[in-house]
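Section: Multi-chain targets

For targets with more than one molecule, the full set of components is provided together so that the structure can be written out for the assembly as a whole rather than chain by chain. Components appear in the order listed by the source. The example entry contains two components.
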Amino acid sequence: MISPYYLLIPILLPILGGFLLLFLKIPLEADRKRNTFLETVVILTSILVWLALFSVKREAVQVISLSGAFSIGFRLDGLSCLFAGMVSLMWPLVMLYAFEYMEGAGKKNRFFAFYVMTYGVTLGLSFSYNMTTLYTFIEMLTLVTIPLVVHYGNSESMYAGRKYAAFTIGGTGLAFFAVVITTVYGEAGIFNYGGSLHLSRLTPILQLAFLSGFFGFGVKAAIFPLHAWLPTASAAPTPVTALLHAVAVVNSGVFAVTRLIWYTFGSETLYGTLSETAALMTAVFTMVFAAAMALKERHFKRRLAYSTVSNLSYMLFGILLLTPGGMTAGLLHMVFHGIIKMSLFLCAGAFIHVTGNEYIYQVNGVGKRMPLTFILYTLAGFSLAGIPVFCGFVSKWRLVNAGIEEGSRQGLTGVFVLIISAFLCAMYILTVSVRAFFPVKGTDRYGERSDVKDPGKRMLAPIVFFGILNILLGIHPGPVIGYIEKIAAGLL
Amino acid sequence: MPVLQIEGIMTGAGLSFSADGFRCVYAVITAFMWAATAIFSKEYFAKEKENLSRYIFFTLATFVATEGVMLSGDLMTAFLFFEILSFTSFTWVIHEETKEAVRAGYTYLFIAVIGGLLLFMGLALMQYTAGTLSFDSLREAAKNSPDQSLIFAAGICILFGFGCKAGMFPVHVWLPKAHPVAPSPASALLSGILTKVGIYGILMISCTALFGNEIFGLAVLLPGVVTMLLGAVLALFSVNLKRTLACSSMSQIGFILTGIGMMLLLSSAGNEEGTGIALSGLVLHMVNHSLIKLTLFMAAGVVMMNLNVLTLDEIRGYGRNKPLLMAAFAFGALGISGVPFFNGYLSKTMLHESIVEGIKSLSAYGGLLSIIEWIFLISGGLTFAYMLKLFICIFVQKNRDEERQLIFDRERKCMNKASTAVVFGSSLLMVVLGQPFVSTRLIKEMTGFSGILGFSAFSVENLKGALISLSIGAVLYFTIVRGVLIKNGSYVNLWPEKLDLEELIYRPLITKYIPEAMGKVAQIFGENRILKPLLAQCLRAGIILTRILESLTDGFILLLRKTVMRERKVKSGEESEPGFLYRLSAVLAAGAGQLLYNFTFAMMMTCLGIIIVLCTIIGIMFR
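Its structure, encoded as tokens over all components, is:
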């Protein structure tokens, strides 16, 4: 077993790589050079991460001591393995996609530098061992992604950037309260399955701390009143929306909330408190609210972003049920939703890249021109709506079962709302497919356009990969479920 | 019972398949239906080039999925294949890609999704309460479950979930729209088999988890009765060949659901003989309806592929000199109307018999069941009436346009040999199944209920029921169809456009009201109404406050200068005069100066000080 200091390497490698790219000043046309450099860095990091997952000792290491109980340090446990493993599988693939997607864009050095740095920050976030570290990395994550959101530099993306910064920095500020309180009350805020506070009941100030922590980290998970940044941020290039705003950044919010609930406050302490009920009800409301908003939305990527908002609340709902079954379901949905939403966004991105159109009414008939893309889109859509054979069904099945098993009225309400939301989900996802494949006669927009066809290999590869994963994990999700069940039982 | 299990995949429970009597027979019927429509498809799609491969692919996929449902050994397997066939059969509905087809397709898709999710919910509840989804162990598990109300809730979810596909009221809205727009071979399958898939699911849970549950029996019976009557009325008023057939399907599904409801009620009363008859009647009616609709829709397909229209006015008189088509259609019509010696008669008689049994043994529902018996007979009459309408329109009456009638008459050949064989051959099954010794054997094979072998099909009482139905039908035909529906010699659509459950409630609810309400919430909380103004007001208040605080001192001075320390304005040329306070201070300073530099004053102050100090010391010491 290797010393936990090893964890610093995969965290720092992409960050340094990004800095290097900023200073290297590779000319804009030298795509090949830049791509080779970036892919090397990313793949190397992913390999290092997987090495770490199998061989690093499961103990904490403090790297920097800030003051008193506040310190920066890292440790590997089951949850961080899950998150880091998931992210490290996705990054190299989406990087490939990004190469082709960004081919014509300017300022590639800046874009890719921050894109790679985000990888390191995300890894740091997943390896962090206490609240302070987690908080630091969450704020850093915001900072490194702002240049990505505003990349295009037009008024729309500048607005999105401002909104993103205001929501995430301001919102995450709420969590600072929780960080301080838990660090002072608990064992230096170090994550411990079952909670580090060891309290029999929560005082009002701690309940307030929990709520502020929940909503503070919840900003990243786009919880209801603080969700508005996510749909707006889809003005960013698709690789960013797909990987960061459907998986890495938003799931880091869910990850942080999981840490807050299960590893800091403890499920037994929280169970039945007012603050937990409030948080759960907010999540339940967000599910159906965002789904309805998605149905109303006409912009392709914004619709998917609203769908992400809705699905993130599924995860929060599962985690907030405070039963191991619920946590399993929530984390399972985190993984599977990552795969599905990645598929959906990459397909949407391919459509936008190839045709230059961005709205739903513009997809009429494109399915016949881009069959592979839209077949995979449809399959991912089925998965998201919770239709069997696909992986989304498994996680939804688990969520519903967990909600029913939890037995309280909240759980059943949540399940009921989840079903409604799933229905809306099927509507907003599948209408796109129907439009793409079955245009009403005479409304086919792409009948004559022979330039519209499936994108190139580098864009198709990740789409196909996630499509296959979608079905494979739907048919045989056993290993993933087993691993997550162990995490939820506190065995890893 | 042969069972195949695939363990450990999907949600962990795996898949299982089994093939006992009912499933075997229905799997064979499914295969037969597909084979028949496939043969017919060759001619039907002869002109079609585009999208044909898509049609073929999805037809085969639906076939696989349907067989999967029909042979499933547990609810999860049934659910899996049910969902697959929901989506693969969607391509049938939308195949033509016309505006109506796309609209009907959306309706079909969303009802399918709703059905799938209801099933999903029901399955989850069932899994939790009963602990198993396998059909074999479900009855015991459900009986032993402590929480019967959850079992019932699960049953309701599953009922409506499968009911969506079956076309049960109030989730029937897709059926009258989707069947007519699909290609005819697909319509035959949609109507003949896919609705039966829904029925299969309802039947399966009725026979296992909820067997003998009285309230669930009512929950199936009442929508069933409504479906039965509503479908028949819609069919009577329809002026489109395939729409009439589609509404007829809905009505026949109502008959089957009524049978399931009666079976549950009778089993709750412990009447085994009645339960057996109800079960026999409904499975036989399932088989009959599948085969009848196969024939009728293929006959409609013949009309469609030759004329490309389906409205009754246009196709009137088309079949006047096409004896084989006429015979096939007549057999189907006679079968579905329940005329003795044709297949529908037997199954309807059995269903009727079960209602009569119900009136005898369920005294609590006697009045309700008597009403239902009459609705049953009237629906049977309506069936006869609308089939008579179709038959007379196509095969007896002449077209109003005489030239068109001439063309019709000249054209003796309406289909090729293969199609003829299929259409006419399948219609002969009506006669075969109309013989009691064939049907009762089939039922025994399917249900294992051997009491049915002694069923006296042609007893006076049973014939009386059929006769009442048929005479009601004849009366209705001559009063309503002849009297009201035909105006100035042409068929008029009298059904008000507005009276459509989907257009009135479902579509606005989902596409308008829910998103609008959510949009309002978003406006209020999310963006513009509260959060943003609130933030702005807070900021503004903060700014004002800090400004005030910041300029507090300045303001105080300003205030003084404006009031008491103001410099008085004087006439030009003179020096400005100091303000009141200046003058006061000057006076005070002048006065005080003299006082302050005075020795006496100093002494006085010293003494005062000494006295105070002394008093303090004394006060402290002698307290």
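Residues 32-37+55-495 of chain B form one domain.
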